Every structure is written in C-alpha cells, then in structure tokens.
Predict the structure.
Amino acid sequence: MATGSECYHCKQWVEKGAPHDCWTTTEAALTTDLSEDLREAWERLRETAVEFGEQRIYASHHSIMFSRKACYFFVRPKRNFLEVCVFLPRTLKAPQVRRIVGASKAKVAHLIQVRHRDEVEAPVTDWLHEAYEFAAPAKAVAAKKKKAARKTAKKR
C-alpha cells in the first residue's frame, strides 16, 4: 500500500505527513539574474509601492505580489523586461499598456512591460497608487465614505 503521493506540480514523490512545498520562492531568487537596468527598475517599483503604505509583499511561483486585502499588482521578472500587471477598476488606454484582460467583474488587469528605471514614473506610478487605493480593505473604504458623507452633511 502506498504511503504517500506524487505532487502534481513537480511530480516528486512525497511521503504521507512529510513537509513539501515546491512552490516556495523568494524575491531574491526571482530577481537574482536581472540585468543592471532591470534590477534598478525593480528596485524603483518596489520602493514606490512601499511608500504607499501598509501591504504584504511576497513571492509566489514566478511573480512578486503586492497586496492589501487582495493583490493589487504583481511583477513577473522576464529576461528582457519586467512584466507588471496592475489591477484597476477601469480600462486604461495608454501606450505603456501592452495588453488588457478582464480579471473579474470589478477589476481589469493591465499588462505593462518595464525595461528601464526611467519608465517607473507617472503615469505608471499613478496607476500603481490608484490600484493600491482600490484594493483598500472594506473597513477603510467604508470609513472614508462615512467621513465624506459627514462632511457633506455639515456643509448643508
């Protein structure tokens, strides 16, 4: 009788009860082979996102995810560019956006290729910030709406 199973991701045999995590990776592992230009662009993207405020940054498979309650953008390092996927509540029409994909009823995924640090500036940073604000936890959004409603009521 078999006392384990084959991992459907990596096809490795895993004994029953043995720890197995073939998906674990790190930011360092994903960015170690980047060229100097791409590394500088990555550092600028990360610094920009960190300045927005509290969030979780973690590596998952081939991407580095930036999330609040849900992921608001991720970076997939490639050989010649950084593929940045930004989730916004609207569709952008800009030359920086290479592809647009409907992610859900409320979100649209925008794929952007970044090749140099100088490309990580407005409007890209503005879109990242908009995505950060859109991904705010429900309590924070409700509190902002309530505060805005009180201000409106006071003005009347």
Notes: The CA atoms of residues 73 and 86 lie 4 Å apart. The chain is about 35% helix and 30% strand. The first strand starts at residue 4 and ends at 6. Residues 23-155 form one domain.
